[in-house]
Every structure is written in C-alpha cells, then in structure tokens.
Specification:
With 538 residues, this protein is of the alpha+beta class. It contains 13 helices and 27 strands. The longest helix has 18 residues. It is elongated, with a radius of gyration of 25 Å.
Length: 538
C-alpha cells in the first residue's frame, strides 16, 4: 500500500499550487542515478516557498531549494554510491513527505514504437522470465502511458484521456514495480527493455540497482520523439549533412502522410511524443537510453541519417548528461518490405557519435509472429545483445558484445575479394541458416549466397564464397565489380555470426548487413592468405 500512497501524493494531495507536491516519478522504491551523476528530486509548491530534502543514510545532510514563480522546484543531491533501502524526507509549505526504499543505481530510459512496446507475455521465453523474477529484487520498472501532446508536459500521464493539449492511449502504466511482485503487474513490460535490464543486473552481481523507465507509442515516426530544436538541426547532430538533407528538412518530406495517421486535434505530429513522454523525464539524468524504432520511417532512410543523430545529440543536452550512452536496435528481418535494408544502414550513421552502440537483429526475424513478422517474438536475445554492448561500453567488460564488423573489401591479383572484419569481432566466424528461412523468400537458406557484387548499376550474387578463419573470400568477383554487400534484403536467408551456435543459441552475435566499396591491393592473393595466418576450412 505504500507505493499507492505515494502515487496518490504525486497526483492529488491538496488542490492548487499551495501544497507541496512531488513529481509522480518521485515515489517509493524509485531508482535515482548513482555517482558520478547528481540525482535530482523535483515537484511543485507555492511560488517562492522553500523546500528541503534529507537523505536518510547517516550523514543527515539536507539539500535546499526554492519554488520558482510557476511553483516548480528541483533539488540536486551530491553523487551517491549504489545503495538501496534509503528514505527521502521532503519538507516544504508546512508539509512533509517521506519516500521509502529509495535506491541509487543506474537508470535506463527505453523509447520507441511497437517493437519496444512488445510485452514480455507475448515474447518467446516468457515462462522462464516469469519463473526467475525473484532473482532481481533491485530491478525496478516504470511503464508510461503513451501520450501525444502539442505542448511540453511537466508531468507524466497516468490515465487514458483526451483534451485540447494531449491524447493519451491505453497503456500498462505502473510505477517502480519489481519482478519479485506478481507478474500480473509487470507481464506487459517491454520485453527488450526488461531483458536488457536483467542481463546487466546479473553481470553486476545484483550490486547495482537498475531502474527501467519505458515510454513508447505504436506506429510512430522519429519526428514525434524529437524536440523542435532537434528537428531544426541541419548539422545532423554535428556529423554534417547527408546528401540532400538540407533540402529534405526544409520541405518536410512526407508531412501530409504523417498527418493522416494522427488525431485531427493536432496540426502537426512533430514533437508530440517528445512533449508527452520524454519532456516529463528530463530531470531523471539516466545512464543511457535504449531505442527500438525505425519501422515507421522505412521510406525515409536519407532523412533518418540526419534526424537520428540530431535527436541523440539533443537528447543528451536535454537530459543534462552530455556523454549519456545511447543503444539502439538495428531493424530485425521482416518478410514484407524491402525498404528495411536501406533503413538498417541509415540507423548506423548514429554510431559516428561517441558512446553509441547497437544490437544487430537481422537474424531474429519471426515469419510466424502473430499478426505480422514486423513484430518478432525473439526479444530476449535482442535485449541480451543490447546489454552486452552496454557492459562493454559503459561498465568496462572485455567482451565487445558485438557481432562481426566488416571493415574492408580488398581485390587481389586473382580477381577475388577478401572481406576483413574489425579486430576482436570475428572470432569463431561461421554461417547459419536464418530462422524461418524455409518459410519465406527463396527458401534456400544458406544454399543461397548472402553476398552480392555491384557491376555497373546491377547487383549480382556471388555464388562462390568461403569463410577462412576470421575473414571471407569471395571468389571470381571480377575486375568490373565496384562494391560488395551482405544480407542486403528485408529477410535474408543466411547469416554470419561469431562465437558458437546459431541465431537461437544465445551465444554468438550476428554480423550486420553491410555494403563496402572494393579497394585494390598490391599484395598477391597467396601472400594475403599467408599474412592473415589462417588456412581454409569447411
């Protein structure tokens, strides 16, 4: 009942701005960011009134703040180590609110459209997830109502509804739930977000509380998640313009199509989800953001190369965490739309920014998924791969947590092309049939080569290819070929992985699709093989 009491405090308390009030996210069992970040506590009170916050862990230190002319206040705490079971006392306007079982740890915000929203109950491995929930007592979860608002909101929405400013869809709203509770409270939690959380939690031996805050909306373009400032950014997050990006941004290509999908109460869909979901979270100071989106922009891959890094750069500024980690899911195999191939490459431009990682999902397709292959049920592995990147990039693990990363394609003196991979990503390089490859496309699985070479303006399949240790040999590509590409299809038949096993073995990680220009080398074919120090194997 304590959590419900605080939830009531966060929404009702005393009518008007004269009463001390906490933001709804400030509740029992919440996770605040640990050191080196400085956590914030925030809410509203009578304009000009003084507020003080005391953290109960022995030092008795009190932090003071004051409500501004609009009645908003925030108090910044000193960095705290990872810990749980603490109380926060907030005093002001003659009132005192006490929050119990407060934790300091790492908070991750999970954003996106329907594949991020996809709940645990509908994913593969749900029975295992449900059975192991008691192992993660300090994993705490928030799921937000999907809100679209024409103006930035200071509070999260807790109920479905519609007014002149906002449209709030039905969601699975809950506040700082734990998997130790009855799964009826959290079975709808984002499967990708949850599986990311439990994998990080386990690798840290449960010593660091993990907070997951999930906000999403189905069939939503990236423009809705972007602030007006991000949308106006023609520098593409500081990476520089892509071809035609300035012209495309100016014309707002496809705006009419977007407007057809949104309630007529809004004149434009731009920034609606930013206003309704992200803006109320900006005091959180998360360790990172997880992102699973792109399907709704699949016909705008050029624009996405600018919008995506612009959004990330702006989001870091808005959260006041300049080096905040950002991890995204490269779109999974999908059985119906060829535009996904270009979109996957557009997503990768964000990796040019610092502290950005991604999880490959090309081998996680699901032709038999209920409703559509757009929503694959293999969410546990996607969450694990995101966690592995975070463990390497944020927590210093030695495993890069990444599949084979193609680095160069070099033509030798015999007309063959050698594809080399980034050091440390191609150990145990092997191929495997893509899941459900016998149900879609050519149905040939790995009997169909995943490699193509560009000759003139046409792509031709490279039939003779061999994995040789940590690199790939494409035979008889010819002198006229200018580029090679791999798995450049919406639902590839054959994938390459590192480590051991195939796509459903949860050990190795798949290679991303790639498109490489062929360069020439003065080194002969035989010498190149000798330099690589490997022998051909089956």
């Amino acid at each position: 009942m304590a959590a419900m009491r605080i939830l009531t405090l966060g929404i009702l308390v005393v009518p008007g701005v004269s009463a001390l009030k906490l933001a709804t996210l400030m509740a029992d069992h919440m996770v605040l960011p640990r050191e080196p970040l400085k956590a914030k506590v925030w809410g509203t009170a009578a304009p000009g009134s003084k507020v003080q916050v005391t953290l109960d862990h022995g030092n008795g230190k009190t932090y003071k703040g004051q409500a501004n002319a609009e009645g908003s206040w925030s108090v910044e705490l000193e960095p705290e180590p990872a810990m749980t079971g603490k109380n926060l006392n907030i005093e002001g306007d003659g009132d005192t609110i006490t929050l119990t079982d407060v934790a300091f740890g790492d908070v991750f915000v999970c954003l996106g459209q329907s594949n991020m929203r996809f709940g645990l109950e509908g994913a593969f491995d749900y029975d295992e997830v449900k059975a192991t929930g008691s192992e993660y007592p300090n994993l705490r979860m928030v799921e937000l109502q999907p809100a679209q608002c024409s103006k930035p909101q200071s509070e999260i929405h807790t109920e479905k509804g519609k007014d002149a400013t906002c449209v709030v869809d039905t969601g699975g709203y809950y506040l700082w739930a734990s998997p130790t509770q009855d799964p009826v409270w959290w079975k709808g939690m984002s499967a990708v977000c949850y599986n990311f959380g439990i994998n990080v939690y386990k690798e840290l031996d449960g010593k660091v509380p993990i907070g997951l805050v999930a906000g999403f909306r189905d069939n939503t373009e990236i423009q809705q998640f972007m602030s007006p400032k991000a949308l106006a950014d023609k520098t593409c997050g500081g990476l520089g313009e892509v071809a035609h990006s300035t012209e495309l941004l100016a014309k707002r290509t496809g705006l009419e199509k977007w407007l057809e999908k949104v309630d007529s109460a809004f004149e434009s869909t731009d920034s609606l989800t930013f206003n309704g979901i992200i803006h109320p979270l900006l005091n959180l100071r998360p360790a990172g953001v997880l992102w699973y989106q792109g399907e709704a922009n699949r016909e705008q891959s050029t624009e996405y190369q600018c919008w995506f890094p612009s959004m990330i750069t702006d989001m870091r500024e808005k959260f006041s965490v300049p080096d905040m980690d950002f991890y995204f899911v490269q779109l999974a195999a999908h059985a119906m739309d060829e535009s996904f191939a270009d979109m996957r490459m557009a997503q990768l431009r964000a990796v040019e920014l610092p502290n950005v990682g991604y999880a490959v999902a090309i081998d996680q397709g699901d032709v038999l998924a209920p409703g559509s292959s757009l929503h694959p049920r293999r969410k546990a592995e996607i969450g694990r791969r995101l966690a592995m990147r975070a463990l390497y990039m944020h927590y210093g693990a030695t495993d890069k947590g990444q599949g084979p990363v193609a680095e160069e394609a070099v033509r030798d003196d015999k007309g063959h092309v050698q594809v080399a991979f980034e050091d440390g990503t191609a150990d145990g390089l092997h191929y495997a049939d893509a899941p459900d490859c016998n149900l879609t496309g050519s149905k040939k699985c790995c009997k169909e080569s995943p490699f193509e070479a560009k000759v003139g303006e046409k792509w031709q399949r490279v039939e003779d290819w061999q994995i040789r240790g940590k690199w790939v040999l494409l035979r008889d590509v010819g002198a006229a070929a200018t580029s090679v590409r791999f798995d450049w299809h919406t639902f590839p038949q054959c994938v390459m992985l590192n480590g051991d096993g195939g796509p459903d073995d949860h050990t190795g990680i798949a290679a991303s699709p790639f498109d490489l220009k062929i360069s020439s080398s003065d080194v002969t074919h035989d010498k190149a093989i000798a330099l690589r120090g490997v022998r051909r194997h089956a």
